[in-house]
Amino acid sequence: MGAGAQHPSEGPGGALVHCESLSFRWPGAPAPTLKALSLRLQPGEAVLLRGESGQGKSTLLSLLAGILAPSSGALTVAGQDFHALNQRQRDRVRGANIGVVFQQFNLLPFLSILDNILLPLRFSPERRARLAGTGKPPEVAAEELLSTLGLSLKALGSRAVGALSVGQQQRVAVARALLGSPSLILTDEPTSALDPKNRDAFLRALKDAQAAQGAALLCVSHDPALEPYFDRTVTLDALQGVTP
Asked: Where in the sequence is the domain holding 48, given as residue range(s)?
């Protein structure tokens, strides 16, 4: 991980993410979306989670990010028992320790490219402290991250975020997720809009940045072509009722 970064304590068995018999049911739904799911994700590990559309992959990411609360089972993320936390406390854990790259990126069009990347620092003193420990000004760290991902902030200039290509927007979203050295990176179908050449370049850049920071990476996708880039591949079906 980067110099000065101090990641939070780990959960059971040294796992950064630990799910045991995790279930989630949407209000009013006749059956749970996820049932008896078990998963362990170790610090620094890169895991691809595969499954068909509508199976609950994005729901699982929302649980791991603390956006949703589990219906039952155990869920520990970055040393925090999410069952014991309220929504505000889970939001604090996410801000401090989890970088999320949503399928729609969730970039803010009224902010500049740089301000979009710097956004996590506004809400997380923990990320600000980790970045301060590196001795790098936030603007320099943001530019270095974007460069690692294959973009030049100087070349992009004052271009509006909405004027960027899909691939460029993805890189800005990833740089935002990585800034301040969170211990866990969650990505939802990050290559769905990319052709094979840009997909491969993007994945190499993402993996290089993730490995340099020592973060764990969980990537959700239905695309089997992504498997060579990850330490291991798991399927949603295999996780439910089976401890990996």
From this structure: 42-67+85-232
